[in-house]
């Protein structure tokens, strides 16, 4: 029995020893294309893009995966690989006696198939491997795959065996890790470069608001992450970031919906070819067009995306593509050579059993005669390079020479190929150099391509630029913008129309709407219409502004006469009634009627009748506002009186009821208070209506403060607060404001010596009000910074030591005007000024500067807006009768309006006007009737500036920001002619305010930021305070970051503000430098503007500058632009009292006249003058008669019989010394 058991064990051991140790479980994976050779290169491509997974019953062996949907581009990759191998096999210089074989697998676009292909490439086709599992790999290198995710699977599978993988199209930056993928190479650049290039492309076109979509794969996720980081650095904002996988149709539909609803019209699609195809189908179905797609190399040049409907979605797309390369011979190979070597079968014998390969690949054979796509192939060149890289590596390892060939005895291992690949450096026949960097990648070179439609209607991928990472920084990225075609949805809008977006459509889809009356657009595809100036109207085609016909009611017209008659009649009747009431004031009837209210009612009626007279005559900005304001206040006063009387009558009937005590609430005092209250409301509304610009100054101050509070570099941990008071344009109210600023609202203190709660005051807008405020606050060392007070008297630091301003003093403007007059040789001028602080102080400074410049003033007149017409007419007569042809007008706008109106009436033309900054750029003066007088005017104006973000801030103002602010409510009511009170009875406005009205829909001085001059001064004043506090609190930069702990103290900061404010010196973000001189004034900088008339429209052209910060000889400069002079003359006018004296004459001052007026008197006998003009006479006393020049007198001498006259000899010698000393 024991012998039997032993025998059985021996037989079992022998049987086991004969069985193979390693065998393949299941059926082997067969290559779709293969060929034997001395060395073998593997290939893995997605020749089919769809895979059908079998149903898994877990009872039977799963069937093979079924692939479908031929991907022609991937098939071309396989053909390129075979073409390169066949070309090398036929070569005499590269691997001369070594043949290369290939094994190409189809992974069907699936990572599952990629794993099967990887195992097949490593193991080969053997079912068993004998007693050891550590045999040689079936291939020496693998080419593929096309997608990053599949390539990662392939590299991680083959990596432990050190089999080199060279991808032609896997661009994921994650594959650059040599630690994780040491045997991976690629002949395409990493997405690190493409993603950054995409961000630069988006930034180049100013697209700061984009959407992004990427494949939910290693390729898409990594590439998009790099793009988002680069976009953030470039200042590009991303509205949404969506991702989906090709196997997620529901998620894809969600992505399409996000795109449809988004506001971003530029989409960056970091998608693989398959995902892009799926997205394109859904966008076409939903008819989502007009989007600007920015694509990546994976799909931007994919022919399979070109369908009859795809261009409506992708037309105009931009993206980076791999450069095209023309591989000679490849086009013929894909039609003939490939089929003869890879598919040696024909249509006749395809049914034979030996032709099963042809039967399984009928879809491939259908492409046999098609090669139209070959010229557009891009990745094929990368595969070509990859094959040659492997061949050069093998050539080196096998020690091949042209004489003896290669040493086939040498056994090449895959790890040796990896090392050899790291050192390859060669040039292929297309001229491209092939080498790998430290990460195993190639140099980043891309073409920028644009989807365009050719002349025959076909879609073309037109190169419009390039990106080459090997070039210097300034030359890496080049675009030819003019060659780009953009997405088009609607035709261009002609001039006279504006674009209006179609609801629910992209920005490229719009309607062309005719501009409204009074508005024009003079360019194609205008986004909006421009409002014509006040005195212009739009043409019929809405493409130009034409001058309005000026029509207004005059006193000489019939309607004017009738209006004056009835107005005066109403005044007369009212006065008669008032006299009757006055005579009978003690009668019961008058007393019962509340005589006080009755007289007030009659007074207001008189004013109402008189207000109608203000509507006669040429309107101006001030007269329009004053006439409405005056009538509004007087009318409200009248209605308030009627209302008071009516309430008393109504309450009188209620008072007859028993125990009624209601009349005590409607006595005379209450009636007076009700009239006062209602009238006061109207006064406040009128003040706000007139001073919208002042309210804009307030908002500019708040804007600057909030901007500073949000800054990380200025007062980082300190917040600025503010208190704004309304001085109502009144000196009395200004004093109350000053007291409020000093005392604050705290009444609980026991001491009267507490410090003021404010550190600095900004304001006021007028010099007189500013002086009042300074005298109240100066004793407490509180700085006052004015943005508009220009009186030179405020520069006196002895009287106003705490005063600063961000507007130049009139002292500088006056000196600049004097230099201007002297520059053009005008020594004889007339002057006219406003009879107020502005005009009087400014003209005094000008007169002093003019005297120093040698300029004489013929006359100096004053004018006030309250002057009678007779006085204004007298001033104009003086100007007209004067001999000076240059008039210096130091006038405020109100006085200028009055003067120019009278000048037009008297036809005062031909004068050269020189104006001050108050009126020289006043647009309302530039009317048709004024152009004949003011054309050619010269004057200095404060330089304009822009404050980024201010307009948007102004338009965001609304009562909802501070529901407790009455000023905001009153401002809103005045702007929109409405009322917040639900009880609209007896209100100035009969419409309810909602608070949601849009400021963008109104146009007034508040919303107009085109002429930011004084508002910019407010902005500078706030920043001056902030920089003062920043320096005082020692908020300094530390280590490149702001030190967040400023040295805040409560004991000494108020005393130090004045000290640090004097030394403030900084630059605004607009580039404007801000500092104060020893008088607290800024640097005086003005633009010299010239009035011109072009096609009936006035223009203010800058022709020079004045900068007081420069040396004296460089302060006033002209910029070389030709000046239009008075009466449109091209020749400079002359304005002198007396013309220059010619040589031979001398100037003789006329008694009682200025030094500029003189007579020209011939030089006396024996005297000369050899200069023209000038006050210093350059003349010489001659000893003999003769004028110019001194002529030598005839020589006289005595004969030999006479002695020479000694006097003549001496005089002759003296004359030679003077006239011709060189002859001596």
From TrEMBL:
Protein location: Cell membrane
Domain G-protein coupled receptors family 3 profile: 559-690
Cellular-component GO terms for this entry: plasma membrane
Residue stretches spanning the membrane: 558-583, 595-617, 629-653, 673-692
Membrane topology per record: Multi-pass membrane protein
Cleaved signal peptide residues: 1-15
Gene3D superfamilies in the cross-refs: 3.40.50.2300, GPCR, family 3, nine cysteines domain
GO molecular function, one term: G protein-coupled receptor activity
Keyword Cell membrane: yes
Keywords: Cell membrane, G-protein coupled receptor, Glycoprotein, Membrane, Receptor, Signal, Transducer, Transmembrane, Transmembrane helix
Family according to the record: Belongs to the G-protein coupled receptor 3 family.
Official protein name in the record: Extracellular calcium-sensing receptor
């Amino acid at each position: 029995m024991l012998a039997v058991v032993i025998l059985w064990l021996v037989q079992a051991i022998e049987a086991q020893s004969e069985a193979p140790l390693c065998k393949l479980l299941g059926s082997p994976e067969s290559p779709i294309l293969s060929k034997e050779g001395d060395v073998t290169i593997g290939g893995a491509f997605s020749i089919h893009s769809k895979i059908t997974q079998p149903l898994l019953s877990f009872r039977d062996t799963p069937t093979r995966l079924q692939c479908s949907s031929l991907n022609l581009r991937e098939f071309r990759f396989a053909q390129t690989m075979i073409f390169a191998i066949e070309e090398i096999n036929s070569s005499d210089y590269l691997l001369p006696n070594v043949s290369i074989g290939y094994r190409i697998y189809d992974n069907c676009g699936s990572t599952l198939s990629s794993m099967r292909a990887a195992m097949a490439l490593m193991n080969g086709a053997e079912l068993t491997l004998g007693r050891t599992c550590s045999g040689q790999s079936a291939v020496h290198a693998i080419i593929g795959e096309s997608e990053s995710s599949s390539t990662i699977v392939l590299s991680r599978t083959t990596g432990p065996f050190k089999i080199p993988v060279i991808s032609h199209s896997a661009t994921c930056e994650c594959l650059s890790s040599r630690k994780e993928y040491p045997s991976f190479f690629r002949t395409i650049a990493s997405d690190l470069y493409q993603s950054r290039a995409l961000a630069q492309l988006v930034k180049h076109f100013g697209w700061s608001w984009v959407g992004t979509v990427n494949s939910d794969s290693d390729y898409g996720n990594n590439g998009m992450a790099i793009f988002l980081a680069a976009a953030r650095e470039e200042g590009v904002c991303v509205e949404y970031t969506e991702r989906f996988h090709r196997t997620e149709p529901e998620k894809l539909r969600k992505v399409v919906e996000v795109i449809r609803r988004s506001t971003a019209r530029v989409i960056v699609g970091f998608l693989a070819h398959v995902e892009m195809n799926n997205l394109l189908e859904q966008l076409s179905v939903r008819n989502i067009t007009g989007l600007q797609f920015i694509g990546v190399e994976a799909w931007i040049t994919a022919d399979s995306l070109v369908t009859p409907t795809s261009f409506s979605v992708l037309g105009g797309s931009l993206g980076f593509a791999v450069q095209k390369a023309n591989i000679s011979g490849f086009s013929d190979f894909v039609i003939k050579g490939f089929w003869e070597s890879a598919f040696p079968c024909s249509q006749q014998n395809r049914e034979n059993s030996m032709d099963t390969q042809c039967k399984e690949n009928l879809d491939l054979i259908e492409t046999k005669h098609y090669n139209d796509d070959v010229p557009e192939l891009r990745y094929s060149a990368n595969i070509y390079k990859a094959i040659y890289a492997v061949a050069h590596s093998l050539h080196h390892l096998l020690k091949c020479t042209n004489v003896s060939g290669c040493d086939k005895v040498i056994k090449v291992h895959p790890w040796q190929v990896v090392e050899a690949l790291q050192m390859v450096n060669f040039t292929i026949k297309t001229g491209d150099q092939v080498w790998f960097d430290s990460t195993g990648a190639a140099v980043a070179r891309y073409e920028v391509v644009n989807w365009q439609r050719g002349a025959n209607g076909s879609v073309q991928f037109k190169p419009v630029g390039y990106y080459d990472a090997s070039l210097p920084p300034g030359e890496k990225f080049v675009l030819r913008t003019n060659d780009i075609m953009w997405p088009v949805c609607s035709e261009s809008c002609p001039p006279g129309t504006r674009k209006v977006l179609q609801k629910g459509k992209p920005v490229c889809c719009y309607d062309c709407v005719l501009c409204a009356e009074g508005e024009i657009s003079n360019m194609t595809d205008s986004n909006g219409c421009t409002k014509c100036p006040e005195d212009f109207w739009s043409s019929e085609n809405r493409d130009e502004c034409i001058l309005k016909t000026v029509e207004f009611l005059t006193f000489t017209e019939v309607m004017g006469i009738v209006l004056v008659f009835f107005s005066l009649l109403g005044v007369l009747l009212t006065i008669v009634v008032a006299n009757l009431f006055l005579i009978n004031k003690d009668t019961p009837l008058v007393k019962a009627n509340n005589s006080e209210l009755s007289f007030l009612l009659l007074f207001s009626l008189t004013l109402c009748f008189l207000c109608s007279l203000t509507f006669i005559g040429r309107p101006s900005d001030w007269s329009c506002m004053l006439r409405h304001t005056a009538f509004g206040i007087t009318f409200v006063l009248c209605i308030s009186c009627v209302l008071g009387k009516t309430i008393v009558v109504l309450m009188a009937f209620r008072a007859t009821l028993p125990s009624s005590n209601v009349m005590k609430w409607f006595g005379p005092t209450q009636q007076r208070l009700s009239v006062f209250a209602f009238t006061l409301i109207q006064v406040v509304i009128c003040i706000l209506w007139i001073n919208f610009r002042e309210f804009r100054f307030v908002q500019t101050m708040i804007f600057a403060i909030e901007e500073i509070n949000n800054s990380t570099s200025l007062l980082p941990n300190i917040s600025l607060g503010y208190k704004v008071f309304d001085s109502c344009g009144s000196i009395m109210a200004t004093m109350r404001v000053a007291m409020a600023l000093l005392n604050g609202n705290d009444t609980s203190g026991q001491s009267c010596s507490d410090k003021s709660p404010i550190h600095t005051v900004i304001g006021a807008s007028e010099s007189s009000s500013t002086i009042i405020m300074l005298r109240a606050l100066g004793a407490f060392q509180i700085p006052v910074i004015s943005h508009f007070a220009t009186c030179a008297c405020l520069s006196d630091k002895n009287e106003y030591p705490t005063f600063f301003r961000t507007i130049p003093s009139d002292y500088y403007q006056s000196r600049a005007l004097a230099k201007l007059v002297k520059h053009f040789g005008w020594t004889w001028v007339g002057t006219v000024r406003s009879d107020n602080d502005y005009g009087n102080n400014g003209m005094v400074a000008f007169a002093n500067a003019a005297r120093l410049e040698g300029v004489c003033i013929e006359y100096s007149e004053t004018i006030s807006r309250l002057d009678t017409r007779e006085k204004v007419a007298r001033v104009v007569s003086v100007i007209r009768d004067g001999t000076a042809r240059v008039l210096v007008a130091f006038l405020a706008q109100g006085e200028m309006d009055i003067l120019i109106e009278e000048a037009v009436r008297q036809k005062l033309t031909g004068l050269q006007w020189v104006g001050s900054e108050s009126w020289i750029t006043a647009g309302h003066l530039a009317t048709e009737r004024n152009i004949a007088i003011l054309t050619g005017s010269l004057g200095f104006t404060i330089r304009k500036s822009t404050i980024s973000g201010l307009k948007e801030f102004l338009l965001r103002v609304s009562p909802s920001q501070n529901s407790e602010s009455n000023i905001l409510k009153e401002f809103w009511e005045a702007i929109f002619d409405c009322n917040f009170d639900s009880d609209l009875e007896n209100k100035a406005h009969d419409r309810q305010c909602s608070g949601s009205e849009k400021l963008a829909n109104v146009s007034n001085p508040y919303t107009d930021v085109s002429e930011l001059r004084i508002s910019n001064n407010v902005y500078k004043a706030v920043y001056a305070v902030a920089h003062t506090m920043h320096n005082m609190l020692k908020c300094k930069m530390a280590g490149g970051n702001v030190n967040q702990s400023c040295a805040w103290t409560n004991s000494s900061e108020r005393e130090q503000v004045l000290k640090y404010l004097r030394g403030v010196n900084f630059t605004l973000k607009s580039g404007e430098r801000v500092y104060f001189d020893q008088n607290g004034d800024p640097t005086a900088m003005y633009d010299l503007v010239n009035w011109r008339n072009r096609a009936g429209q006035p223009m203010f052209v800058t022709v020079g500058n004045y900068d007081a910060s420069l040396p004296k000889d460089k302060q006033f400069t002209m910029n070389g632009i030709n000046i239009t002079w008075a009466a449109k003359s091209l020749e400079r006018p002359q304005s002198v009292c007396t013309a220059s004296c010619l040589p031979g004459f001398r100037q003789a001052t006329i008694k009682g006249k200025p030094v500029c007026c003189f007579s020209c008197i011939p030089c006396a006998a024996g005297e000369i003058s050899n200069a023209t003009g000038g006050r210093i006479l350059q003349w010489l006393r001659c000893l003999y008669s003769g004028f110019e020049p001194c002529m030598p007198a005839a020589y006289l001498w005595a004969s030999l019989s006479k002695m020479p006259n000694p006097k003549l000899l001496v005089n002759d010698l003296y004359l030679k010394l003077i006239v011709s000393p060189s002859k001596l």
